[in-house]
Amino acid sequence: MSNLPSRLLASFAFAGTLFGQNFKPDDVKVLGDLKYGQTSTSVECATSYCAFVFDGNGEDRIEANVKGVDGTTFVAIADGSLTQLSSSTNRVVLSLPNHGPDAEAFYIVFCNDQHKPTRFVVALKKLPR
What we know:
By secondary structure, this protein is mainly beta. 10% of the residues lie in helices and 47% in strands. The longest helix is centred in the N-terminal third of the chain and has 13 residues, at 6-18.
């Protein structure tokens, strides 16, 4: 592993610290809400993590795309308690967990992989099942 570029090693370490963990509410700045089919305006994220909240129903299949202007973007989908459900770089596709017939709040959580202040555009789509 010592032959891997340091940036790649940092990305592995970054992803490894986040997988399957809860986000702390104090570390996530909620910038607003999105609805299916909506794309945000360009937003600045200068804190540890930023997020958009959206309402979804169990088994909705969703796609969240997050484009940053600087570096790789970490993106995750989290449930209402900020428990990470899935994560990737730039794009997440996921079927939301089914907890009953009522809509629930979910979060699109994102940041620059080096936690540098960056501008982002976030898009949310509902996909066919």
